[in-house]
Amino acid sequence: MVLGSELSIGDLVKETPTDFIVHKRVFSDPLVFDQEMERIFETGWVYVAHESEVAKGGDYKTVLVGRQPVIISRNSDDNKIYVMYNSCRHRGATVCQSEYGHSNYFRCGYHGWTYDNTGDLAGSPYEDGYQDDFDKSKMGLIRVPRVGNYRGFIFVSLSPTGPSLEDHLGNVRPYIDLFADIGPDGIDVVPEHIHKSFYNGNWKTSVENPNDNYHFEFTHASLQAVYERRGRPTATMAAGKQRRSSGKGAMMLDLGNGHHAWGGFDGPGTDWKNYRLGGNSMPPVFIFPNVVLIDVQIRHVVPLAVDKTELHVHLVGLKGVPDEINEERWDHHHEFYGAAGLGAPDDWEQFERFYRGSLSRGDEWVRYSRGLKYEVADSATGKRGVSNEKLPTSEVTLRAIYRQWHRAMTSA
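and the corresponding structure tokens:
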């Protein structure tokens, strides 16, 4: 695709042995955004929900997959989860308007066509007005081509063909396992524990952020000053100080397929043992293209336009622990990420500044080259890390995003 100039999609990310640059149009061009929706969000695997959000038969959730509205529902009879397009087969209106709810039926408010929560058409008023061969069994809501569930995390693909979900997740699966098992009896997410935020900026800056370990001491300087006065440093601060004092770097990882994480070269293990229950929160894990597992939250990134993004932050409860443990974890979360939090507003402001800056002329490229000269690849697994353990920060995790972005955007 040519973008109205000499540049094509394939020209927007450039990697050499000494440099890694991304064109600003990746963050500011509506034509690029349209292609992202088609080639990434409406073709590949995309996170839509945790199964505990639709825990009981009749529960449902609505969400966007790229530009496509879908319903995720659990059927009462077979207890299975169904995902279908939220569009009436008569005139195309959405049939479910609430984000969460409980119902065995979805009724179009325009002409009354009614569907059960598997998507089958249950009834259409005044059926004698339709042709003689009108077949209700063929007029149900269209189900999305593929639905996958890994450890309670529900993903969909709007393409009937392509890699399996397990192949897409690849090296990130052990990190999802660790997150899913952090409570003695697993984890739980409920709609009451969600808060949303909105920023005027591109979606990719928010998926870079959790594992951009270069920004913390600068962007969150005021937060650090407050915590130090209280004598209670953040988990990120404490981990950073421990690594610097031990002469070890941040151990950032490109896990392949766009996923990235903070951990040891061999995956979660000894480097993460202090982040389990009873210790600090777990370091962030990003699953391409739209979900971050971080601390006590599942962060669901919902792109709305090239310059508009919603973040749906779901608090995670640990099952099988006393209530006070979850309450303490959530209190720490709200202190950083809440509406009056000390940390998240700093990040959200930067996301908007990134977008405004991406409109500037002059130098049209942004750089992701930090740590590139120390980057090493594992040919057997596809993982990439840094060979210099003393390097305190690296952008290897950010390069992971744009390597996969480039592959997806240029694939036939």
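(Above: one complete record from the training split.) Residues 242-247 have pLDDT under 50 and may be disordered.
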